[in-house]
Amino acid sequence: MVQIFNDVRYLSAAQLDQLGLTMAQIIDILEAAFRAKAEGKVMMPPKIFFHRNGPRFYSSMVSASPALGYAGCKWQSGDPANPAQDLPYIQGLYILTEDASGQMRAIMDAEWITGRRTAAASGLVVKYQARADAETLGILGCGLQGRRHLEAINAVRPDITHCVCYDIQPDRQRKFIDEMSGAFGFQVEGGATAEAVTRAADVLITGGPIESDRNPKILPDWIKPGALVVTIDYDSYVTDAAIQAMDLVLTDDEGQIADARLHEGKFPGVTRVDATVADLVTSRTGRRTSEAQRILTFNLGIALEDLATAIEILGRAEAQDIGTMLPVRNAAAG
Ligand SMILES: NC(=O)c1ccc[n+]([C@@H]2O[C@H](COP(=O)([O-])OP(=O)(O)OC[C@H]3O[C@@H](n4cnc5c(N)ncnc54)[C@H](O)[C@@H]3O)[C@@H](O)[C@H]2O)c1
C-alpha cells in the first residue's frame, strides 16, 4: 500500500538553517550523487535557461532518480540588478517529489540550496584537482558565492588560507574583505584587477554575472602554471584562447554544455571536454597528472546537486520535525 501524504512540508531558509547541514556534509552528498550519475542512476534533462530581454534570466532544473527514491524541480529567477535593491541575485523554490508515488513531499527555499551546493561542487573539484602545494585562492565576484566558496574550500583544503578577491564594485570588494577576513581561517586581501587576482591564484573561482552578451576577460597567460580554474559563471570570464590553452577541461555535465551552446550561444570556445566531475570522483580520468598542468572546470550547476541536497534536507526535517505543513489534499476525501 502506498502511504498517502495529505500535506507537503514547506521549509524556509531559516528552517533550513536549523537542520545543521554543513558544507562538508554537502560536499560528501554531492560526491555520492556524482557517483550515482556515473552509474547511470540519474535522469537529468538539460536545464531550461533563458534571458528575458536583458540580464534577468529564468531557469528550471529537473531530475529524477528512482535509485535515490525522489525527483525534483527548481524554478528560479536571476538578475544582477537585484542586490542594489536588497534582493538576492538568484531567487527560487525547490519541489521534491517521491518517485514511487509521484507525491509532492516538500517545497523549500532554493536560494539556500543553490548557495551551498554550488560552492560544494567547486569544493569537490578542488579536493581532487588543486595542486598539493596550492596556497592562494582567487575569487572573482565578491557576492554570495564568493562567501560560500571560502567555506567550501576550507572544508576540503584547510591549508589554503590566503584569498585574493576582486569585484567590479569596489564597495562590495571592501565589504567582502571586512566580512571574510579571518572567516574559515582565511587572510583576505583585495586585488586591483581581475588580472592581478588571476595571476596570483593557485585556485581561481570565477563568479561574475552570466549575461546574454559575453565579454570574457581572462587571457591564457594570466593563468599560472599548475592553477585550477573553476567557473560558476559559464564561460563569461574566460576567453576562448584561455579555454583552449588549458591542459585539461572538465565540466559537471557535457550535455548541458552542448545544450547551452545550441540554445544560448554559450561555450563557442569549448573545442574539447576531457572529463566530467563524475569521471573525476569515480576514476582517474581527468585527474591532474602533473603539478604544472593548468586545469579548467566548467561547473554549470546541475539538477542532481539540488536533488541530492533536497533529499538529505527532507530526511533531516522529518527526523527533527522542522517545517510548516501545508495541506495539498482533502484528508477526508483521501
Ligand atoms: N554554476 C552554478 O551552479 C551557479 C549557481 C549559482 C550562481 N551561479 C552564478 O554565480 C555568479 C555569482 O552569483 P552570486 O549569487 O554570488 O551573485 P551576487 O550578486 O551575490 O555576487 C556577484 C558579484 O559579482 C560582482 N561582479 C559583477 N561583474 C563582475 C565582474 N566582471 N568581475 C568581478 N565581479 C563582478 C558583483 O558586483 C557582485 O558583487 C552568477 O553568475 C551566478 O549566475 C552559478
Describe the structure in your own words.
- This protein has 334 residues and is an alpha/beta fold.
- It has 2 domains: 7-113 and 304-327, ornithine cyclodeaminase, domain 1 (2-Layer Sandwich); 132-302, Rossmann fold (3-Layer(aba) Sandwich), CATH 3.40.50.720.
- Helix content is 34%, strand content 23%.
- The protein is built from 10 helices and 15 strands.
- It has helices at residues 13-17, 23-38, 110-129, 144-156, 170-180, 194-200, 240-245, 254-264, 277-282, 303-320, and strands at residues 7-11, 48-51, 57-65, 70-78, 90-98, 104-109, 136-140, 162-166, 187-190, 203-206, 228-231, 248-251, 275-276, 295-298, 324-327.
- The chain has an 8-stranded parallel β-sheet, sandwiched between helices.
- Helix 8 (254-264) links the parallel strand 12 (248-251) and strand 13.
- Helix 2 (23-38) crosses helix 3 and helix 3 crosses helix 10 (303-320).
- The longest helix is centred in the middle third of the chain and has 20 residues, at 110-129.
- The chain is globular, with a radius of gyration of 20 Å.
- 47% of the residues are buried.
- It binds nicotinamide-adenine-dinucleotide.
